[in-house]
From TrEMBL:
Keyword Hydrolase: yes
Domain Exonuclease: 31-204
The name this protein goes by in its record: DNA polymerase-3 subunit epsilon
One protein family per Pfam: RNase_T
CDD domains: DEDDh
InterPro entries for this protein: Ribonucl_H (IPR013520), RNaseH-like_sf (IPR012337), RNaseH_sf (IPR036397)
Organism listed in the record: Allopseudospirillum japonicum
Keyword annotations of the record: Exonuclease, Hydrolase, Nuclease
Entry GO MF terms: exonuclease activity; nucleic acid binding
NCBIfam families in alphabetical order: PRK09145.1 (NF006601)
Length: 205
């Protein structure tokens, strides 16, 4: 934790006057960005990005008109096993964006807003593996983990309960429709809807 704080402070100092200095400024608005990535594996050290989805959440609304839906050029590590999960075939990535351009678009879209996601630290670890060599810093944004927020809300009224934290189970308990499961933008929108429901609605027992 101390090392991460030192690295973040060093990145802020190094980039304060650069192109992405805005990312290190304190955020004072009411938006966050729900983010999801589809990848070739579950190993953060080797997983390659296949698609990136992000949508802005403003107060009690998921702004589906203000979203990012990027398919990338086919990575060499795309295999049949990963296709079974995200259902994105090599042919579907024909004409996909170059990774560097996609990451730059993502940085501008997120800005210095908090990043919301489901097991989002995995996505961020993979993104940072590609962002730091290209841009010289890691994502400095505050992170909101949906599963932790859900567990906290449930245990406020049921301290002994260990809720099922599977994505589909959380959505079902909250009465949120799943929008295109295992597509990056679909999962990002669904996560945003679950987050709004947790903040605004009555928490199920």
């Amino acid at each position: 934790m101390v090392l991460k704080t030192i690295i973040k402070a060093t990145d802020r100092w190094t980039h304060r006057d650069g192109e992405f200095g805005f990312m290190f400024e304190p955020y004072t608005g009411e938006e966050c960005v729900s983010l999801d990535c589809e990848m070739t594996s579950l190993d953060p050290q080797s997983a390659e990005l296949v698609s990136i989805g992000a949508v802005k959440v403003r107060g009690s609304k998921v702004i589906t008109s203000d979203r990012l839906d990027i398919k990338l050029q086919r990575p060499e590590s795309l295999t049949g096993d990963s296709i079974k999960i995200h259902r994105i075939r090599g042919i579907d990535l024909h004409g996909g964006e170059v990774l560097g351009d996609a990451l730059q678009d993502l940085l501008y879209f997120i800005g210095n807003r908090p990043i919301l996601g489901y097991y989002i630290n995995f996505d961020i670890a993979v993104l940072n593996r590609h962002i730091r060599p290209r841009f010289g810093f890691s994502l400095p944004n505050k992170v909101i983990e949906l599963s932790h927020l859900y567990q906290h809300k449930i245990q406020q009224t049921n301290p002994e309960l260990q809720p099922d934290l599977h994505f589909e189970k959380i959505a079902g308990k909250l009465g949120v429709p799943i929008m295109g499961r295992h597509t990056a933008v679909g999962d990002a929108i669904t996560t945003g809807l679950m987050y709004v429901r947790l903040l605004q609605g009555k928490i199920p027992s």
